[in-house]
């Protein structure tokens, strides 16, 4: 039987017990042709189907979607997302109804072909439109017609022919920007005049609002622009919503056009989806490879494509109001600089998830050394945006990493792959996973072979496991769906889940491979840190296998936020503390050899550089070396100059000769030139932006460009420029004279230690004053640019001129007590316990919220507040079922429902109060479900108890947070 076809009754009856959604996803994942025709589409339903639809398009499936403007119920947000699917190859049309015609179709048709021959197919035809309610909860009937293997039945042909007929109808118009804008106008007009649409089909879209960290960042971004900054960096840990923040800020400043730049197409597509949810009225397009949508309001561009000169020249300098740089990719450094030199946006926002100054150094330089806001994992956990984590660093004894070749900052892949695919190692991993696991595990592997090997080994030992990678039989969205519903316990992945994908249900992360950089380590850790209300996840378990090689030092270095690995021996003995509920366990043997490795590190400059390169995954730039705390003066003492040290590291004779040819200018003209102000480096940056090594640059153009650059650093400008000149504009004669009398004059004069001046004036032109081979220009620009970043970072730190609005509030990213294995954290939460407030798990029962005792709970229950949280006993067994069974006598952790912490009650387990005619209060625990007609149903998870309908006499007063292990309770005085 084809995997396309669902096994079971032909009728899907809907409701929670027989929803259509999983059947559609299964069919989407195995069809080569997908045809959908529904009257209405809402964002809630489309969001459920999007991952599968996107995977289908990526795997070559043909997708056709038809919806309608009938009653103007379809959401413009949903239509915007459909336009994104059209950009990826889908055919999307809108049936435009006339006054005498309606559109009520609800049909989902899936066909699978092999070698151009149809081998199976199914069609679901019934009453379900695309909304979350219709696909998951509402009582909607859909009848399935299917075939497999035999000749295509006439009825199936007829179904497809009728779909093609309506899809090709003269009223079915291809969805485009013009049609969407017209529909949006009509939709908004109806919303303004109609108080309530048919509740059966329309749904109120939830307001998208910033979380607490995003709100703080937005306020500080507004302040930084008010000060005069045109660029700024925001650091937000994985899972805290970097991309959403950028979209909120684009909306906050009312940008007409925005540019989002990243180094991978998948990141761009995810960002495009996020921006389109928040800003559905704006057109959007990709600018990647051969796909170049330059006319869109929101352009999502790969740095590799956009930085090409012929592409940049298609845009005016002021084309974009707002630019976002998402994670600086070191290998494309010059490409980023080319983009930023070309555009003059009102504001540029740099985004990164890495909290360390070393890793931020390059993108911080792009952002004019303006660190606007920083929030790491600790903050995310404390603010309830992320869940706490329990990290277990275990020994990896069956791989001798010292014997595996180490080249260019990474292990040789083939040798590593062979070392990993052993029964001994797999048995070791399985044993530890079984003792530490929770319900849904994502495991990171080194290769497809490794992922397949691990999945097969786990399956042979009774674990429901699968391997997922680019081209695997099981698609990514399908694996996540199977994980969520419990049909898989572990997904072994290669690269597909490193960044960008939202995986809230993951509660265990299994790290089975070395990570070449801290950012990759953080991305993998971050896959499981998101909150998951649907699964009730309390914390993330991280199981990490650590080998006997210096490269593994980056893990404790990242956990303790200290790049000086020499300090790790001491840090692993007395580390700082972390957010409540988190702890780190290192196996004793891991601590021993980590400390041995840390103590063995020597500290010559070349070894410092090599160590930092291993940690970063690339040759460090001068500013990264500086921000890591290394001594640049020591470099010059041992190697004369920074790039002579780099030449020794690179072992490239051509680079060594290039450095030798240009040594004096790089060293004396840039690296060590005297600087009492920022002016010389500002001048050099303007010179590079104007391509001064190739072109004759006028002093007027140089002064104007310098003015724009220095005023991107308003603190420096106010500090360095004479007060009476600070009101002068870029083209002011007074400004030109001032610039001529200062950096231009000094750069055109010979310093006492120099044999010549490095620049000269020839009339109105500013020119270099030394011989330069034309073939040396491009590499020289890159090296000078690197030194400018370094000198400005030095200047910022020395002058205190760097704006750093949130740095003082930043704490170690993950630093936590290192505990012996299986040791629990100390108790720290003291909460009121109401022994007489018996929350009935049956029918309403009486109780009293009086006579509170104080109880202490350990840290792994989270950061709890006695004014918000309390403990009460359960009475009865109506909730003794489902994913989180509550038994009679269980002690329950609750959070009060207050105006400031109300949130959504639907799909949550709530404590409910009912006051009777005599004024006595009765209490009940039930799962609250909102019905399609707006009423609420109080559901029991034990099938022996009937559900109740909510009434006006009831109110929710607390939300169930956890079931408490009795061993965790201690009575306090």
Automatic annotation (TrEMBL):
Statement: the UniProt record of this protein carries the keyword Oxidoreductase: no
UniProt protein name: Helicase conserved C-terminal domain-containing protein
Keyword Cytoplasm: no
Domain Helicase C-terminal: 425-579
Domain Helicase ATP-binding: 223-373
Protein origin, superkingdom: Bacteria
Molecular function per GO: ATP binding; ATP hydrolysis activity; DNA binding; helicase activity
Classification via SUPFAM superfamilies: LexA/Signal peptidase, P-loop containing nucleoside triphosphate hydrolases, Phospholipase D/nuclease
PROSITE patterns: HELICASE_ATP_BIND_1, HELICASE_CTER
Keywords: ATP-binding, Helicase, Hydrolase, Nucleotide-binding
């Amino acid at each position: 039987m084809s995997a396309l076809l669902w096994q079971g009754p032909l009728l899907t009856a809907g409701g929670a017990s027989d929803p259509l959604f999983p059947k559609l996803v299964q069919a989407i994942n195995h069809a080569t042709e997908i045809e959908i025709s529904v009257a209405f589409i809402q964002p809630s339903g489309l969001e459920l189907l999007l991952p599968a639809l996107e995977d289908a398009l990526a795997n070559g499936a043909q997708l056709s979607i038809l919806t309608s403007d009938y009653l103007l119920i379809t959401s413009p947000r949903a239509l915007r997302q459909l336009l994104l699917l059209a950009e990826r190859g889908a055919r999307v049309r809108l049936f435009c109804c006339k006054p005498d015609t309606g559109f009520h179709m609800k049909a989902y048709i899936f066909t699978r072909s092999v070698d151009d021959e149809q081998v199976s197919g199914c069609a679901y035809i019934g009453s379900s439109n695309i909304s979350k309610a219709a696909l998951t909860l509402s009582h909607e009937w859909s009848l399935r017609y299917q075939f497999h293997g035999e000749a295509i039945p006439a009825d199936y042909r007829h179904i497809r022919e009728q779909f093609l007929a309506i899809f090709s109808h003269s009223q079915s118009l291809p969805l485009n920007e013009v049609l969407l804008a017209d529909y949006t106008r009509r939709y908004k007009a109806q919303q303004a005049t109609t108080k309530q649409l048919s509740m059966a089909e329309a749904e109120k879209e939830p307001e998208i609002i910033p979380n607490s960290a995003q709100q703080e960042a937005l306020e500080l971004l507004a302040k930084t622009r008010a000060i005069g900054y045109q660029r700024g960096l925001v650091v937000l840990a994985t899972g805290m919503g970097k991309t959403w923040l950028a979209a909120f800020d684009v909306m906050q400043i009312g940008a007409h056009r925005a540019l989002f730049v990243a180094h991978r197409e998948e990141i761009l597509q995810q960002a495009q989806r996020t921006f389109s949810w928040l800003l559905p009225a704006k057109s959007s397009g990709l600018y990647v490879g051969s796909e170049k949508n330059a006319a869109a309001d929101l352009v999502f561009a790969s740095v590799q494509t956009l930085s090409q000169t012929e592409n940049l020249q298609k845009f005016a300098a002021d084309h974009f109001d707002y630019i976002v740089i998402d994670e600086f990719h070191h290998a494309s450094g010059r490409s980023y600089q080319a983009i930023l030199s070309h555009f003059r946006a009102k504001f540029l926002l740099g985004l990164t998830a890495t909290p360390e100054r070393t890793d931020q150094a390059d993108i911080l330089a792009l952002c004019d050394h303006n660190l606007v806001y920083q929030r790491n994992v600790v903050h995310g956990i404390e603010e309830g945006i992320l869940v706490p984590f329990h990290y277990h660093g275990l020994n990896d004894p069956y791989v001798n990493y010292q014997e595996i070749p180490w080249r260019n900052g990474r292990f040789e892949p083939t040798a590593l792959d062979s070392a990993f695919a052993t029964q001994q190692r797999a048995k070791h991993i399985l044993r530890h996973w079984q003792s530490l696991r929770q319900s849904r595990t994502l495991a990171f592997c080194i290769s497809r072979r490794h992922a397949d090997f691990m999945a097969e080994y786990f399956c042979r030992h009774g674990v429901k496991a699968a391997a997922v990678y680019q081209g695997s039989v099981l698609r990514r969205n399908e694996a996540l769906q199977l994980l969520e519903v419990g049909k898989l316990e572990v997904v072994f992945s290669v690269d597909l889940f490193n960044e960008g994908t939202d995986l809230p249900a993951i509660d265990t992360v299994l790290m089975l491979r070395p990570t070449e950089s801290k950012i990759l380590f953080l991305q993998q850790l971050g896959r499981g840190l998101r909150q998951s209300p649907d699964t009730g996840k309390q914390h993330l378990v991280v199981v990490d296998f650590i080998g006997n090689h210096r490269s593994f030092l980056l893990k404790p270095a990242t956990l303790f936020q200290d790049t000086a690995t020499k300090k790790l021996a001491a840090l692993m003995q007395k580390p700082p503390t972390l957010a409540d509920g988190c702890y780190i366990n290192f196996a004793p043997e891991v601590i021993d050899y980590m400390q041995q490795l840390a103590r063995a590190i020597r500290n010559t400059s070349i070894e410092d550089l090599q160590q930092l390169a291993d940690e970063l995954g690339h040759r460090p730039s001068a500013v990264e070396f500086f921000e890591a705390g290394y001594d640049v003066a020591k470099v010059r003492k041992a190697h004369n100059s920074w790039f002579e040290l780099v030449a020794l590291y690179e072992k490239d004779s051509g680079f060594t000769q290039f450095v030798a040819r240009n040594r004096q200018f790089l060293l004396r003209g840039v690296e060590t030139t005297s600087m009492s102000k920022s002016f010389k480096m500002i001048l050099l940056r303007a010179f590079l932006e104007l391509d001064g090594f190739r072109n004759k640059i006028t002093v007027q153009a140089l002064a104007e460009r310098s003015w724009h650059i220095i005023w991107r650093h308003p603190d420096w400008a106010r500090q360095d420029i004479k007060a009476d000149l600070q009101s002068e504009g870029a083209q002011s004669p007074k400004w030109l004279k001032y610039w001529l009398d200062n950096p231009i004059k000094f750069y055109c004069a010979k310093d006492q230690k120099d044999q010549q001046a490095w620049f000269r004036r020839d009339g109105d032109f500013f020119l270099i004053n030394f011989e330069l081979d034309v073939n040396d220009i491009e590499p020289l620009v890159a090296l000078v640019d690197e030194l400018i970043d370094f000198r400005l970072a030095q200047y910022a730190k020395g002058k205190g001129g760097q704006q750093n609005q949130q740095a003082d509030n930043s704490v170690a990213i993950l630093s936590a007590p290192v505990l012996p294995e299986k040791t629990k954290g100390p108790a720290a939460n003291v909460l009121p316990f109401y022994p007489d407030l018996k929350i009935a798990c049956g029918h309403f029962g009486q109780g009293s919220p009086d006579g509170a005792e104080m109880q202490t709970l350990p840290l792994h229950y989270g950061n709890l507040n006695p004014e918000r949280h309390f403990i009460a006993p359960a009475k009865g067994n109506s909730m003794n079922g489902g994913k989180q069974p509550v038994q009679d006598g269980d002690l329950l952790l609750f959070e009060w429902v207050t105006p400031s912490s109300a949130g959504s009650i639907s799909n949550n387990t709530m404590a409910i109060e009912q006051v009777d005619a005599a004024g006595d209060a009765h209490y009940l625990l039930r799962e609250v479900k909102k019905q399609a007609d707006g009423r609420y149903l109080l559901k029991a998870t034990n099938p022996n108890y009937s559900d109740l309908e909510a009434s006006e006499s009831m109110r929710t007063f607390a939300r169930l947070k956890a079931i408490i292990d009795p061993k965790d309770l201690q009575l306090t005085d």
